[in-house]
Amino acid sequence: MTSKFSSEGFDLDTASSGDVILEVGGGSTKVDEMKTESSLVAKSEEWKQKGNDCFRQGAYLEAFDMYTEAIESCPGMTGDELLKEKAKHEEQQHSEAMEAHRRSMNEPDKKDEKESFKAEPYKPPMHVYGDKLATYHSNRAAVGLHLNQYEDVIRDCDIAILLNPSYTKPYMRRSAAYEKTERTEEALQDAKAALQLDPTNANTRKTVTRLQKLEDQRLEELKTETMGKLKDLGNSILGNFGLSIDNFNAVQGPDGSYSVNFNQNA
Fold first, then answer.
1. Are 178 and 214 in contact (CB under 8 A)?
2. pLDDT-based confidence at 162, cuts 50/70/90?
3. SS3 at position 14
4. What is the pTM of this model?
5. What is 19-64 written as a DSSP string?
């Protein structure tokens, strides 16, 4: 795979078409290629600025188009290609994990001799313009929140975070999209990740506190719902014997253990 070369620090205007720049560590890049990439990045930056102007004016559909132009003009691996590579990597990891499990089941006496399978997280290849492309995707995600395009917001933020894991804005924008789609657990995780990257951000801290309360409430409601279903199941079985869950009481002893008492008259 051919690595991308950054033209930063080179005066391309003094070089002639067809000249070759020798790179440190070997390899070379033609001046024409470097000029083309610089031109494309400059064009992307122009589209981004137009998008910013539209966003400030509340022209969200136009801003969405401008950020899309910035994304498509940026040279190098695209966000869609990154996501495909990540999906392929995760599929391979899953297959290897299943194969390791199969071997351990078929050869149990050799289980201790086998190293346990450890999944390797996906590491995207270096992208010369990764920070810029991450900004374009994150900005388009901000527009998507205003357009209620929450799944597209999540996808754009996935790409931005892959390109620049220390960029806090896509974490918060993805968190907002997760909350809008009632995925408070994921929303809380992203908000916590953003707070870890920027512990001094008061707004992020408030968001974490608010989402934590929502998640605690969700878990409590889930527990109540689950217990209700278990009680209904128990009653359906015990009803065959003329009994119900109410006939049994769990009593906690001084040592913290529980005993079950039977109440015939309940």
1. no
2. very high
3. helix
4. 0.72
5. -EEEPTTS-EEEHHHHHHHHHHHHHHHHHHHHHHHHHHTT-HHHHH
